[in-house]
Amino acid sequence: MTTNLELLFKDANGKSRKITVKSPKEGLTPAQAQTALDNIVQANVFIGNEGEDIYAEAVGAQYVSRSVETVYEQPAA
User: What pLDDT score does 51 carry?
Assistant: First the structure.
């Protein structure tokens, strides 16, 4: 199973944006996640093609786990 951390934002136009962190530290507290989100918003260094702030507002953070179960696999030749 793989786990990613998604940091969720809205840009200056209200469009949903996210940053995906692969193999994140597990067990983050809400306060730690909020601090990370706020730091990204306050850095104001991510600018879109039209000059808009693409991480203008912090929305949340979530762990996303993915499990793959192989049902069939072609035998090696």
Answer: 87
DSSP string, the chain: -EEEEEEEEE-TTS-EEEEEEESPPS---HHHHHHHHHHHHHH---B-TTS-BTT-EEEEEEEEEE----S--PPP-
pLDDT in tens, 59-77: 999 999 999 899 999 998 8
Regarding pTM above 0.90, the answer is no
C-alpha span between 47 and 19 (Å, rounded): 14
Residue 50 Rama label (left phi>0; alpha psi -120 to 50; beta): alpha
